[in-house]
């Protein structure tokens, strides 16, 4: 019986014109029809998309007819369609039968007609599935794909889906997606489809899929269970024939290893958008043929380094985006030797180990977008990715890269790192990326670009450097980019620009320099564009071009899109701008100008003219043969507009008065008038304005206008009923038993009303529709906007004006009540707060008084303790002065006897006391430091006092170190190599201890390294330990810069300069800032003092230990000395030279070079140095005199400082 419905529709749609039937879709036929869908709906009386000639149809015809069981007459036999239907069926490749409000079609068991070319059958039913169960096999001998569609309102149970009889042996694909299936039981459901290889169950309500079901489908290759509610899979294995398994968008919390046991042929596995948190080891072991694995949008937090994917040796795509991974470990991708693409975007990666990608050398695409906590890459991360073509890591919070970060990526074509925090970039950062084509590096924190950063990128086609704080671009920075086609350099902060910036980029098609200049630095630039013959898009807003240049640009035949702006666009004398566009120009934008009147002539079909944000513009005249878009928005004083009709029109933010041409001529399809600044004329003409726009414009935006508050007018105009897509002529709708005219639109109009007193919402209603032209009546849906006041507003007056409701605070008494209530509520709180404050103030006063008393007591205690350290000068017997070759900073050093002990006495020089009263304070600080500090590698402190000389001088008593200073020892003896290393370790240990206390020595030299009888080293002379006050810093460190640019430090420089060039003095004499020959370059050149300066001085001790001679850099480099020594030293360091290190063993040379680095930041800490020396000393096979150990520990420049206390 169901076939007759199809036949009737086919007849009434003009498919059998020879029968002379009354056709609702009749039209002259068109031969050689090659359409894909033909729709002939009885209910809506739609005409055919293309009239058909039944005998001249291409094989790819698809036919769809809506069958209305309630209105379609019933006939006992579908063959009434006659011979004219057979040619249609004989050429169909796809047939879709759909009912609107009745049961599905039922075809009789007929064998006299077949569909010889039919490949796909789509059944769209609503209630029963009789047609599905009784498909006549002879009619569908070639059918390969069967789709069964059931609306969401009807959930199917398994018993509703009986197997077709007889079986459809030719059907290999069955689609029953989005059918609201809640369960599929292992019955005979699919027995009628014995050769099924594709099964689509996506978009249902399944919570489980029994394993016994899959056992019946032995030929199944593709199984789609996505968009269900699966929480687990049956423990029985899936069919081993599966090649594609889609389990995306379910609720799987785990993936049992047994579930994939038999899937040895699986090539694609999709597990995205589940709730997986972990994956069991070996879960993918059976699926060694897998090519694609999707694990995106799960809750994975870690990939173990044990090789979760080790068995997937053929995998080419790994999708891990939108998880919660925090770290990518070395070995996590082990086994993926053929991997081509990995997506790690939008995880929470913070760390990537250096060897994390070492096991994926075939990688072509690496996406790490959106890992905001990544911050930095290990230097060797990409060392094995020589075949990588795309590297994407925007939005990762990266602050910079190592200079050789990308050197191994010689095949790279796309490098994207926009929206990071990169502040600096190395000049050779891209030197090896010669195949790069696409480079978006916008929105970082770069303030400048190195001049030759892009020189090697000769194949680059697209470059984004926009949204930075560049104040200038180096001249010629783009000269080598001869293949560049698109350059985005907008939103910069330029103060100047090179006119020849892009003169060599002859292949450039798109150039955007808009909004790149600071308003305060606006200047005229004659940008050289004549050689850019391929340029089609040019955006230069905020760039001032010379007079006459603008019109020359607009006349160029290659330009299609131009945006200009700035004060030089229009004639400064008249404020008038005349712009004649070339025949090729389709879009012209003019903004932020000083123009008062603009005249534009456009000759291109569908031209677009945009004139916005021109504060002085009062008049616009446009002449065009075919204007598509005209935008004159945000011109605050625009009053006059002359233009031809346009499809899209925007006048937002202007005071243009009402005009009848709105929406009829200007804005026939899109009309925007947001926040008009002079609404008075619109209030007077609101009904006519809304009627014109509602009848004509498909998109109407009147947001932000207060005049949209007259509800009665809005309901009369915007509230008219309308039909969509019917093609009826003068239709009427029966509303409340009255025939009301109804509008007919091709599409539903879009009405945008934001920030207005009234809103209009679209409503759909059923009613009787009468078509006067065809004298036909039917029940159909019509649309209507219902307008009402927004919440907080209500209608007032006869016009139904939406007026804001008065609130409690709109009355004076309401405000008074709120103030009084607030006072009553908050007053107790403030009283409590004040009481608490006063109590705390009293407690603070009591604490201050107590602390003052305690401080007095503490000062008494401290004075008593200091008394314990005092030594009477009479107790000492000075024997001889022992610092003749190594004078200290402030004192003279004597050998003395103190009772039965030999000690060292350091006496402050009297001349220093007269020259600088602050010296006594520094001397006392040295004594105080020694009192509070005890370490095996610092000289021991015994006490202090004052001499009985006139005038008295302070002194301190220290441990006497037998062998004296290291330089004296090296001059007298040849020490074994192990002894030298032990001395260096002792010195670094003592200095590390000083640094750990937050102090700097500032006079590290071999003369201050004292050697005991057993050749242990102790650090001495802490006169420069504390940095002087700011005033003394300026006095001693502020130098006089001569024509060579050197800085003389304090009085010593002038002394040396005046006495000639005493190198010996500079090797031994100390100043308040240290001994000159041992001073770091930054101390000499800039007066900067830091822990790294002590490390530099220590490097000279290491050199001295090795070569057993003073570290005289001028002598070693054979630099002639003419005049003062300081300029010569400064010049040597400015040239980047240092003491020669040839002849040292490798590890010792590396240590010296690191400590001797001219850059303070590159020097190691003393803890790192000590670690290196101790590790070497601990080696049992160390050759003391000749060579180093074959494998020595490497110096770690990043080891943090630790305190070493004894």
Automatic annotation (TrEMBL):
Q: Which SUPFAM superfamilies match?
A: L domain-like, Protein kinase-like (PK-like)
Extent of the signal sequence: 1-20
Q: Which UniProt keywords apply?
A: ATP-binding, Leucine-rich repeat, Membrane, Nucleotide-binding, Repeat, Signal, Transmembrane, Transmembrane helix
Q: Which Pfam families match?
A: LRR_8, Pkinase
What GO molecular function terms would the record report? ATP binding; protein kinase activity
Q: Where are the transmembrane segments?
A: 812-838
Instruction: Show the Gene3D superfamilies listed in the entry.
Output: Phosphorylase Kinase, domain 1, Ribonuclease Inhibitor, Transferase(Phosphotransferase) domain 1
Keyword Transmembrane helix in record = yes
User: Which residues does the UniProt record annotate as the domain Protein kinase?
Assistant: 879-1182
PANTHER family this protein is in? LRR RECEPTOR-LIKE SERINE/THREONINE-PROTEIN KINASE-RELATED, RECEPTOR PROTEIN-TYROSINE KINASE CEPR1
Protein name as it appears in the record: Protein kinase domain-containing protein
Q: Which organism is it from?
A: Monosiga brevicollis (Choanoflagellate)
């Amino acid at each position: 019986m169901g076939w007759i419905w199809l036949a009737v529709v086919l007849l009434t749609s003009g498919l059998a014109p020879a029968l002379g039937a009354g056709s609702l879709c009749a039209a002259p036929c068109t031969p050689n029809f090659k359409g894909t869908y033909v729709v002939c709906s009885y209910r809506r009386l739609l005409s055919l998309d293309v009239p058909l000639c039944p005998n001249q149809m291409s094989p790819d015809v698809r036919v769809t007819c809506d069958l209305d069981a309630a209105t379609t007459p019933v006939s006992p036999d579908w063959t009434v369609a006659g011979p004219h239907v057979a040619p249609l069926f004989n050429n169909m490749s796809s047939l879709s039968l759909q009912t609107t409000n009745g049961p599905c079609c039922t075809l009789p068991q007929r064998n006299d007609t077949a569909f010889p070319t039919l490949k796909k059958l789509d059944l769209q039913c609503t209630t029963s599935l009789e047609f599905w169960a009784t498909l006549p096999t002879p009619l569908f001998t070639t059918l390969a794909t069967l789709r069964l569609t059931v609306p969401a309102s009807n959930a199917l149970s398994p018993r509703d889906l009986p197997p077709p009889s007889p079986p459809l042996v030719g059907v290999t694909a069955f689609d029953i997606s989005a059918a609201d299936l809640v369960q599929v039981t292992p019955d005979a459901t699919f027995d009628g489809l014995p050769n099924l290889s594709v099964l689509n169950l996506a978009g249902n309500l399944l919570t489980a899929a029994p394993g016994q079901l899959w056992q019946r489908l032995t030929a199944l290759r593709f199984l789609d269970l996505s968009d269900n509610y699966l929480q687990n899979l049956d423990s029985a294995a899936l069919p081993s024939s599966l090649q594609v398994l889609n389990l995306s968008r379910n609720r799987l919390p785990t993936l049992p290893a047994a579930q994939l046991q038999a899937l040895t042929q699986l090539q694609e596995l999709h597990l995205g958008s589940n709730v997986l948190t972990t994956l069991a080891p070996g879960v993918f072991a059976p699926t060694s043929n897998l090519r694609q694995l999707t694990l995106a949008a799960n809750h994975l937090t870690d990939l173990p380094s044990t090789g979760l994917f080790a068995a997937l040796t053929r995998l080419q795509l790994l999708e891990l985006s939108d998880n919660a991974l925090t770290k990518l470990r070395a070995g996590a991708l082990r086994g993926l030797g053929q991997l081509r693409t990995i997506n790690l975007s939008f995880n929470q990666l913070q760390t990537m180990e250096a060897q994390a990608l070492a096991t994926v050398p075939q990688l072509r695409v690496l996406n790490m977008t959106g890992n905001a906590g990544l911050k930095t890459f290990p230097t060797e991360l990409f060392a094995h990715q020589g075949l990588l073509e795309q590297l994407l890591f925007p939005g990762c919070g990266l602050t910079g890269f190592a200079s050789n970060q990308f050197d191994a990526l010689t095949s790279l074509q796309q490098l994207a790192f926009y929206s990071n925090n990169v502040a600096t970039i190395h000049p050779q950062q891209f030197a090896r990326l010669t195949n790069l084509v696409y480079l978006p590096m916008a929105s970082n924190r770069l303030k400048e670009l190195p001049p030759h950063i892009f020189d090697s990128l000769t194949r680059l086609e697209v470059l984004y450097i926009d949204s930075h704080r560049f104040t200038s671009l180096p001249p010629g920075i783009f000269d080598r980019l001869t293949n560049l086609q698109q350059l985005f350099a907008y939103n910069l902060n330029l103060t100047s620009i090179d006119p020849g910036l892009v003169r060599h980029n002859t292949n450039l098609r798109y150039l955007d320099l808009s909004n790149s200049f600071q308003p305060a630095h606006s200047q005229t630039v004659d940008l050289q564009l004549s050689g850019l013959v391929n340029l089609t898009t040019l955006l230069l807003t905020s760039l001032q071009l010379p007079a006459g240049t603008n019109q020359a640009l607009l006349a160029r035949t290659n330009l299609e899109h131009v945006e200009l702006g700035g004060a030089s666009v229009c004639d400064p004398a008249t404020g008038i701008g005349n712009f004649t566009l070339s025949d090729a120009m389709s879009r012209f934008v003019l903004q932020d100008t000083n123009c008062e009147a603009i005249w534009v002539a456009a000759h291109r079909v569908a031209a677009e003219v945009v004139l916005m944000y021109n504060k002085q513009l009062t008049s616009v005249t446009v002449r065009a043969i075919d204007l598509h878009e005209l935008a004159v928005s945000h011109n605050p004083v625009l009053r006059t507009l002359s233009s031809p009709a346009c499809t899209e029109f925007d006048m937002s933010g202007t005071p243009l008065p009402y005009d009848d041409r709105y929406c009829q001529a200007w804005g026939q399809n899109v009309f925007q008038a947001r926040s008009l600044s002079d609404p008075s004329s619109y209030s007077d003409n609101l009904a006519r304005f809304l009627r014109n726009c509602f009848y004509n414009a498909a998109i109407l935006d009147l947001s932000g206008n207060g005049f949209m508050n007259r509800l009665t007018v809005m309901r009369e105009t915007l509230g008219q009923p309308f039909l969509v897509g019917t093609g009826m002529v003068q239709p009427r709708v029966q509303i409340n038993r009255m025939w009301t005219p109804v509008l007919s639109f091709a599409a539903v109009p879009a009405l945008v009303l934001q920030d207005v007193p009234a809103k209009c919402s679209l409503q759909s209603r059923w009613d009787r529709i009468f078509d006067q032209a065809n004298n036909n009546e039917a029940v159909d849906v019509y649309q209507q906007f219902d307008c009402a006041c927004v919440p907080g507003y209500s209608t007032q007056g006869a016009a139904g004006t939406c007026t804001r409701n008065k609130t409690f605070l709109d009355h004076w008494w309401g405000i008074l009540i709120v103030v009084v209530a607030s006072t009553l509520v908050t007053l107790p709180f403030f009283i409590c707060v004040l009481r608490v404050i006063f109590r705390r103030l009293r407690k603070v006063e009591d604490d201050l008084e107590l602390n003052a008393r305690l401080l007095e007591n503490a000062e008494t205690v401290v004075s008593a303790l200091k008394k314990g350290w005092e030594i009477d000068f009479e107790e000492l017997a000075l024997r001889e002065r022992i610092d003749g070759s190594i004078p200290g900073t402030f004192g003279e050093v004597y050998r003395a006897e103190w009772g039965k002990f030999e000690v060292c006495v350091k006496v402050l020089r009297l001349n220093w006391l007269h020259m600088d009263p602050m010296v006594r304070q520094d001397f006392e600080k040295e004594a105080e430091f020694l009192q509070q500090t005890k370490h095996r590698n610092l000289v021991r402190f015994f006490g202090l006092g004052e001499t009985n000389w006139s005038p008295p001088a302070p002194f301190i008593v220290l441990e006497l170190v037998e062998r004296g200073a290291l330089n004296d020892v090296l001059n007298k003896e040849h020490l074994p190599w192990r002894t030298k290393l032990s001395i260096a370790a002792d010195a670094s240990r003592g200095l590390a201890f000083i640094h750990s206390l937050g102090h700097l020595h500032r006079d590290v030299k071999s003369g201050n390294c004292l050697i005991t009888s057993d050749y242990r080293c102790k650090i001495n002379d802490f006169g420069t330990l504390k940095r002087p006050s700011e005033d003394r810093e300026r006095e001693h460190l502020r130098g006089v810069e001569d024509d060579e640019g050197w800085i003389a430090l304090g009085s010593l420089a002038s002394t040396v300069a005046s006495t000639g060039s005493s190198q010996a003095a500079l090797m031994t004499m100390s100043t308040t800032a240290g001994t000159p020959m041992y001073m770091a370059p930054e101390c000499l050149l800039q007066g900067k003092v830091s822990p790294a300066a002590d490390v530099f001085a220590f490097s000279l001790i290491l050199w001295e230990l090795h070569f057993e001679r003073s570290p005289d850099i001028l002598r070693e480099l054979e630099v002639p000395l003419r005049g003062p020594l300081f300029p010569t030293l400064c010049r040597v360091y400015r040239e980047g030279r240092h003491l020669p290190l040839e002849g040292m063993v490798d590890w010792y040379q590396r240590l010296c070079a690191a400590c001797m680095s001219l850059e303070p930041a590159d020097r190691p800490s003393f803890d790192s140095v000590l670690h290196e020396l101790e590790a070497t000393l601990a080696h049992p096979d160390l050759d003391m005199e000749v060579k180093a150990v074959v494998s020595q520990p490497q110096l770690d420049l990043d080891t943090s400082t630790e305190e070493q206390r004894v």
